[in-house]
Amino acid sequence: MTLRPAQTWSPSFNDMQPNPSSPFSTPTLQILDIPLNSQEMHYREICGMLKYTQDNTRQVTKDKKKYSRELHVALMRLDVGGGKGRDGRERMRKVAVLRKVVRSHQDYKKNLRACEGVLWRKENELKRALRLQVRENGNADYYEGRNWWFVAGEEESDEEDEEDDEDEENDEDDEDLDMEMEG
């Protein structure tokens, strides 16, 4: 029995011809990648910062809720057990630390909201300027056909909207908690 060598020859890539009866015979259109101008790049940077502040605000709100609950429990334990003895000092220390953590989360959230307001204003100004610029160039639909604009509301899900509603209710609870913390 003789072994025949395996075929090592294959047609080159340039020699291959498309099959005319193939369902994939129509060439796919290439996506035209137009480089961004400096205003568009600045707009994208602003949108990235805006997304970052929104994500951080959401995360800080979640963390603040968690620490507020822990603080509430620690205050109840301190009221029940008192502040005397070693365990009492531990309870007092935990309450003091949790108060500082909650207050720092409140301050950070307030600062993030202030930054978010400034970024929204800049984003709207840039969007108006870019639309005006393309209208002046005679191509008013330049951005409309592209999925280019940053829309924060579309990226959020319904669950996050419900969380935002809860956040507004919890802001009132936070004021009550502040009164408790000061007292």
Lay out the secondary structure.
Blueprint: H1 38-81, H2 85-136, H3 152-155, H4 158-182
Helix pairs in contact: 1-2, 1-4
Region (Disordered): 1-25, 154-183
Written overview of the protein:
Residues 1-25, 154-183 are annotated as: Disordered. This protein has 183 residues and is mainly alpha-helical. It has a domain at 37-136. The chain is built from four helices and no strands. The protein has helices spanning 38-81, 85-136, 152-155, 158-182. The protein is flat and about 90 Å long.
Key terms:
single chain; mainly alpha; 4 helices
Please give a quick description of this structure:
This protein is mainly α. It has helices at 38-81, 85-136, 152-155, 158-182. Mean pLDDT is 77; it is low at 153-159.
Distance between the termini: 99 Å
The pLDDT mean sits at 77
Structural class comes to mainly alpha
Task: Catalogue the unreliable spans.
Answer: 153-159
Portion of residues in helices? 55-70%
The tally of strands reads: 0
Strand content: under 5%
What's the multimeric state?
single chain
Tally the helices: what do you get?
A: 4
Characterize the overall form: flat
